[in-house]
Amino acid sequence: MAQRKGKYTIVFDDPPMIKSSAAIGSKKEAQGPLKHIFDVINEDSYFGQATWEKAESRMQQDTVTKALEKGQLSASQVDCVFAGDLLNQCVGSTYGLRDLGMPFVGLYGACSTMAESLMVCSVFLEAGAIQRGVAVTSSHFCTAERQYRFPLEYGGQRTPTAQWTATASGAAVLEKGDCPPFIRACTVGTIEDLGVTDANNMGAAMAPAAAMTIKHFFEDTKTNGDNYDLIITGDLGKVGTRLLRELLLQDGYNIEHAHTDCGLILYDMDKQDVHAGASGCGCSASVMCGHFIPLIKSGKLNNVLFVATGALLSPTVVQQGESIACIAHLIYLSSQKEGGRV
Amino acid sequence: MAQRKGKYTIVFDDPPMIKSSAAIGSKKEAQGPLKHIFDVINEDSYFGQATWEKAESRMQQDTVTKALEKGQLSASQVDCVFAGDLLNQCVGSTYGLRDLGMPFVGLYGACSTMAESLMVCSVFLEAGAIQRGVAVTSSHFCTAERQYRFPLEYGGQRTPTAQWTATASGAAVLEKGDCPPFIRACTVGTIEDLGVTDANNMGAAMAPAAAMTIKHFFEDTKTNGDNYDLIITGDLGKVGTRLLRELLLQDGYNIEHAHTDCGLILYDMDKQDVHAGASGCGCSASVMCGHFIPLIKSGKLNNVLFVATGALLSPTVVQQGESIACIAHLIYLSSQKEGGRV
Q1: Taking all residues of chain B, what is their mean pLDDT, rounded to a whole number?
Q2: Torsion, CA B93, CA B95, CA B99, CA B103, rounded to 10
Q3: Is the fold of A3-175 the same as that of A182-334?
Q4: Residue A298: exposed, middle, or buried by beta-carbon count in 10 A (0-12, 13-18, 19+)?
Q5: Whether the Cβ atoms of residue B167 and residue B45 lie closer than 8 Å to each other
Q6: β-bridge mates for residue B239, sequence order
Q7: Spatial distance between the Cα atoms of A250 and A248, rounded to a whole number of angstroms
Q8: Are B275 and B159 in contact (CB under 8 A)?
């Protein structure tokens, strides 16, 4: 049985392990400093399909297939897949996973989906409801841009606070066992909204959600930034990163020395013209699944917090004058199954 | 610990109970034969708000608040809410629940969301990850119609196979305890797609998903239609109901004597001009939370299967020629905490 710590945090008694993970990206991701983390780079942003939506579905299917292959597994050996994405009705996931025949739990957490899917999958494992699960998400620059902002052909100017939606996907296979990394605990996010209405400044909108969830976790576990090798947020970018650190400092938590953000490291911030950084479900998913999870697996990192942030807006509510409601879910990953911080 | 039965079914060791539930509807729902099941009828389809999306959010917030009130609880006593809806980015849930401050797990299962949220909440309870949760969903005729089909002002003709999206919401409060009804088991759905492309015939598209999930449950538990007082699907309507029964007969399961569909009973099929019946997340959610859950609570029903079906399409993929991928999740509810069918 999982134990609750405080009001928001779930600590696993028999922590699930991440058996394998995979990341797929496209052309722009291959031009960045993390090009080596991708299992597959497909420079064709259509992924051989007729539309961008089908491309995103294909990318997500390929990522799950690759993660299973790295774990020497087939789809029929998976009890449940936990998936979602940014597209209306989460069709990137539905249509991407349709042919794999796995029992399917659809999630919506916008760019927090990688943390949400790892969390829900871990709880299903802890309950004994499944023996093996897959957590996956994706984003695609072209599908997201036209759905949330403008037709690509329009060539709209991007503001300095805008972030670039990654064309990428990450997937992880979870089961019980003794090989790191282990998912030791998670903190379920609350919906935070400080009134930001600028849909081109997601970092500012999401930072308060990240700050709140991290604060909840620190309070619940009586730890702080000094207890972790790395606190990885995704995807706050330049603006949100600064705000997050400021907000946590106001609560007495200094995380600067341990903090990084997936939106700041996926692309070359000087040369790739991505303004405030990367974003999209696929950004933190691929950076975690392709980069940080392997680093914990190999023992180079030991105690890591992964805090994925999502802006839960729709274009419709923004047009109706609503501010941007956001959420962040936190996953505590460790190279150790016992001991550590919880 | 939950036990897995067969490949798809999760049987709870310490089954969660439904402490309280509530249903809210609007004008058309009040004109139907189930008008008495609603805790609140708001004849104003705007629910006092400026837009339909805000109306749906308000309805969902009111439904959760009412379910908590009936359980003599406040939002601060809830460990997590599990919610989703039909709107792009699930904004009915996000913006409806934003002010309640509860930890939030966003789901997307289209009209299967009530079963999905009950399932995920039950697993969280079984794992010990939470002590109390709320499952909720909603739909609104006006938001769904313009998002999926036509502007309401257009006055488009509806085909005979079309269903009418309910303006309704249902919410249930779950915790561990000894008062019925109990959630004894659930079967996670698989994505099924037999190639239906007519977005005005959701019943036909969804029936195969319902048939597959029911078949999986019967096989996993070695039971059949004779073992249950009622098998409640939602929302297949006239067309889907006939197809479901035919599909299951082909597999040797006759459920006709025990089967009903929320889409067939919410409205007066002769007088209310709803063509093939009701649909929308709020249809099965309100019919379950307002009608059937109380009937199990009072002992008038003992062993009930709730199979909510969802069409996971988006307007975009339909325009791109895709067929309609569907899913159904199953919940086995019982008035008894032990014994019974699993």
Answers
A1: 97
A2: 40
A3: yes
A4: exposed
A5: yes
A6: none
A7: 5
A8: yes
**Nearest to B184, CA basis, from B304, B295, B298:** B304
The continuous run of DSSP H or E covering A97 comes out as helix A91-97
- A85 → chain B, closest CA residue: B89
Read off the pLDDT of residues A207-243 as tens digits, 9 standing for 90 and up. 999 999 999 999 999 999 999 999 999 999 999 999 9
CA distance B91 to B23: 19
Angle between helices B52-70 and B141-148 (to 10 degrees): 140
Confidence category of residue B157, pLDDT binned at 50, 70, 90: confident
Closest Cα in chain A, distance from residue B61 (Å) = 14
**Count of positions (residues) in chain B:** 342
Tell me how far apart the terminal alpha carbons of chain B are, to the nearest angstrom: 15
Contacting residues of A for B103, CB less than 8 Å apart: 7-8, 188-190
Which of A1, A4, A124 is the closest to B123 by Cβ? A124
- Residue A127, min C-alpha distance to chain B (Å): 4
CA distance B48 to A256: 46
Contact A217, A8 (CB under 8 A): yes
pLDDT at res. A250: 98
- Residue A52: its chain B contacts at CB < 8 A? none
Q: Domain residues of chain B, as ranges?
A: 3-175, 182-334
* B3-175 topology per CATH: Peroxisomal Thiolase; Chain A, domain 1 (3.40.47)
A327 and B106 within 8 Å at the Cβ level: the answer is yes
Angle at A313 (CA atoms; ends B125, A161), nearest 5 degrees: 125
For the segment A261-297, what is each residue's pLDDT rounded down to a tens digit? Answer: 999 999 999 999 999 999 999 999 999 999 999 999 9
Tokens, residue B9? 């079914």
Q: What is the pLDDT of residues A72-81, one digit of tens each?
A: 999 999 999 9
Which option is the CATH number for A182-334: 3.20.20.100, 3.30.365.10, 3.40.47.40, 3.40.50.300?
3.40.47.40
Q: How far is CA A69 from the centre of its chain?
A: 21
pLDDT at B156: 84
> In chain A, what residues touch B315 (CB-CB under 8 Å)?
88
Beta-strand ranges (E) seen in chain A are 3-5, 9-11, 17-25, 40-41, 80-85, 104-106, 132-139, 164-165, 168-175, 182-187, 230-234, 259-261, 278-279, 303-311, 326-334
- Alpha-carbon span B152 to A132, nearest angstrom: 45
| Terminal alpha carbon distance of chain A | 15
